[in-house]
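thoughts on my protein:
***
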Amino acid sequence: MTTILVTGSHGQLGNEMQQAAKRFPDFNYIYTDIEDLDICDKVALQAFVKANKVNIIVNCAAYTAVDKAEDDVELCYRINRDAVQNLGEVAYENGLKVVHVSTDYVFDGTNYMPYTEDQPVCPATVYGKSKLAGEQALLGSCNQIVILRTAWLYSSFGNNFVKTMMKLGIERDSINVVFDQIGSPTYAADLADTILKVLSHETFVPGIYHFSDEGVCSWYDFTKTIHRIAGITCDVRPIDTKDYPARTPRPQYSVLNKAKIKTTYGIVIPHWEDSLVKCIEILKTKV
């Protein structure tokens, strides 16, 4: 049986991978996080892969604190670039496949049409630059790789925008939310399913692919929809990006073109509102 090593298993996507695995029983799964396996340590990674007869690595580990990364540059690059380089080298040396998750932050967000995989990259933040460096390190070290860029990720696990807006909506009478940043909310469960569909496909076609849920909205629209579905009554007020203090710039436009992954792997992608309903139903059971 094919063995998949899932790194970063305690995060949003890592947890969703564990749920998705139940729907893809034809693989053997090994879940690790920093306390089990430090992927920054190539020797330890090499030994782990050999000892456990790993065939595929799905890398869900990442440094994702966008603002904090501006001060924590060394650690950000260590996780988002150097560890990914290790994964690529170990995969190449052992004949493994790698699926690695990247981000819309490799673009600067100034576009007005959905980004395709072959458009020029131009990250504007330390986080974005470190993730791009990770992509380049992987592309330069291994040929059996799929890089999945995604955006606006949320889940019933971990800390994320959906949970924050539900909490604030309950605690406050009104909140201000940016309305001039546009993207596609993406349920991490949908991304996890897509990763396993790619790995289950009859042919493995390496390359960079974009994945997010269908449809677009602003953070303001997203919040209004979260509250409507969750039954929260709170006055949500739209504000400009310039009126919301943030350490680092956020992409104004984060919409990704998914035609390549749909065509190559036959992926059918749900609309973000439909997936949001599923996530909020789960969150209600956790209260």
User: Anything to note?
Assistant: DSSP finds nine helices and twelve strands in the chain. The longest strand covers residues 97-103. Residues 3-160+184-215+254-270 form a domain with the Rossmann fold fold (CATH 3.40.50.720).
